[in-house]
Amino acid sequence: MNALFSQGKTDFRAYNILSGKKRRRKRRRFNRKLQKILNKKSVLAYAIATWTEHYISASDWQNQHQLAYCKARAKALQYEKITSTNNVLNKNSDDEENHNDDNIEVSAEFLQFLKTNAKFKEDARREREILKSNLESQANDLIRTEPDISEPMSIEQCQNMYGDKWQQICPLEMLLTNHYVKICEKYKPALWPNIPLNL
Q: Same domain for 8 and 81?
């Protein structure tokens, strides 16, 4: 492959043929591994194998289109550089024209507005800090909870809630509730704090 690029000319067609051979080799190797896994009839292994196949096809696609992406990104950066230099030049010329307005008068109402706004921002900041400290203290005091199981519903309540199919739905609901209670007793989950994650 180095012989292709050492001539000074890049023969992309030959490069694509070589990369096609590598892809076919990878595909054959993958299919052999997939057959071994399928012979074991493991559902988890099959899921992993299909994920790997999708990953390989995505990485092949990325490798094929990487050159085009780099070219497009270079053009975009070049355009961004030109526009940003034009913006800077325009701003500098505007600033030179606006330097004559040094004697600006500010009214008392505007100053009062700025003071009120600053006070409001400070109060909001303090409230956020207090709320954050409260949430942190609650998160530190994680408690174990028992499942909230209310009394079972009566037959009349089941008939009103589920209609004609109440005899099929009530046992399913009872089974699900019983399963939930068993899991809670076995693992004793902690109460998850209902707060947003600040990432």
A: yes
85 and 2 assigned to the same domain: yes
Q: Which domain holds residue 175?
A: 147-189
Q: Are residues 85 and 8 in the same domain?
A: yes
Q: Give dist(CA 117, CA 109) in Å, integer.
A: 12
Considering only CA atoms, which of 5, 20, 7, 10 is closest in space to residue 63?
Answer: 20
In a domain, 66, yes or no: yes
Structure confidence by residue, pLDDT tens digits, 17-76: 556 777 788 888 888 877 776 666 566 667 777 888 888 888 888 787 887 888 888 888
| Angstrom distance (rounded) from CA 15 to CA 181 | 62
Q: pLDDT per residue over 108-140, tens digit each?
A: 888 888 889 999 999 999 999 998 888 777 766
Count of structural domains within the chain: 2
